[in-house]
Amino acid sequence: MPRLLDHEARAELLCYLVVGQLVARARTGDWLRTDHFVESLNISLNANGAQADWLERMQFKSLSEMVALDLHKLPHLVDEAKLAELFTDGWRLDYRSPVVRSIYAACKTELRDH
Known about the structure:
The protein is mainly alpha-helical. It has helices spanning 7-28, 34-47, 54-71, 80-84, 98-113; strands at residues 3-4, 50-51, 87-88, 92-93.
C-alpha cells in the first residue's frame, strides 16, 4: 500500500526534482517539460512506495522550478557533467555529496516556508 509523504520524504522528492530541473536546464536551456517532470515524479514516488495527490504534484512542479531558479546561477550547478556526479547507481542522488546535501537543505527550507 503506498504511503503518504512525510516532511523528510517531501524534501527528498523536491531535491530529486530540483536536480532534474537543473539537469534539464543544463542540457536544453529550459526547465523540465511537463511530460519529463511527470516521469521524474513518478519514478521517485514509485521507487519509494509513496503517493501524492494531484494538487501536491503540481505544487512540486512550481516549487522545483523556484528552487532550481535560485540555484542555477551557481557554477557547479549549470554544468551537465558536474550535475551527473550528483547521482549514484543510476538515478539515485548521492546524499554523501555536499552539493546534494546543500540542495536538500534548500528544499527543506522552501517546504517549511510554504
